[in-house]
Amino acid sequence: MPVTVPHDLPARAVLEAEKVFVMSDERAGHQDIRPMRIAILNLMPMKVATETQLLRLLSNSPLQVEITLLHMSSHVSRNTPPGHLESFYSTFGDVADKHFDGLIVTGAPIERLDFEDVDYWPEMTRILDWTRSNVQSTLHICWGAQAALYRHYGVGKYEVRQKISGVFTHRLTGAKSPLVTGFDEEFLAPHSRHTDVHARDIEATGAVEVLAVSDEAGVFLAATPDGREVFVTGHPEYDADTLAREYRRDSDQQSDVAVPAHYFPGDDPTALPLNRWRGHGHLLYTNWLNYCVYQETPFDPNGV
């Protein structure tokens, strides 16, 4: 089944070229089925690229998914044309009285800032608090995961000496969760961040379970037992070349940037990287949609 997007959203053309099943909102209106209402709070600078990555993963499901794109009203995006935001995005104020089956909160390249120093932190806290009454399940990515762990449970973040960047091997912890149904006992996933959250701090909450960890990159996946709050510290949505583009961007700004670990063949930054995490990325999002959203949300979304 398709993911439903506006017919002129740029990501639609990319996904259709990949033979991904997307449906226009006009056609979806004639379907006699209630779609899953999923909002994406896009905090990333390159919003079009992030839209495409997430929509690709959300489309790999038998469910019809209706997307609402959100951006912060208290922050001015410098990397996305204002016309794109005006055409395809809403703000929290536009949806604060609505209920959603699921919400994805993306990462943001601001993890070195204290949470309270982020210009949109007051708005962010209002959104995070709102999710507990108006969203069936929220999936938080990277900085979004750190922000939610801090806001909801007081879990702090720690700056690391060297950026955690690369593709790392992870293992399941043994905690039982449908989110990891079908996962290999060891799997790969990308990370890209300057800060870390510690498994012991998460476990000390008594409310969040650590589901997958890496010896090198730390916690990858954690969630509440009911699946209403999911925390992903890495980036399974990344394209094959995303880490390469980040590495070249960072190298242009400073000279001592480390090559992303276990990413380029032979650790040669001129070599073409391969996507070795795509399967588990799709599986994670499909499991989230199925087990945490579809099987738990009420038929009337206003009853969340």
Automatic annotation (TrEMBL):
Gene Ontology biological-process entries: L-methionine biosynthetic process from homoserine via O-succinyl-L-homoserine and cystathionine
Lineage: Bacteria, Bacillati, Actinomycetota, Actinomycetes, Mycobacteriales
HAMAP family (UniProt xref): MetA_acyltransf (MF_00295)
Enzyme class: transferase
Site for Important for acyl-CoA specificity, residues: 111
Active-site positions on this chain: 142 (acyl-thioester intermediate), 235 (proton acceptor), 237
Annotated compartments: Cytoplasm
Gene Ontology, cellular component aspect: cytoplasm
Name of the protein in question: Homoserine O-acetyltransferase
NCBIfam families per the UniProt record, alphabetical: metA (TIGR01001)
Keyword Cell inner membrane: no
Annotated InterPro entries: Class_I_gatase-like (IPR029062), HST_MetA (IPR005697), MetA_family (IPR033752)
Pfam families the record matches: HTS
Molecular function as annotated in GO: homoserine O-acetyltransferase activity; homoserine O-succinyltransferase activity
Main location: cytoplasm
Source organism: Gordonia sihwensis NBRC 108236
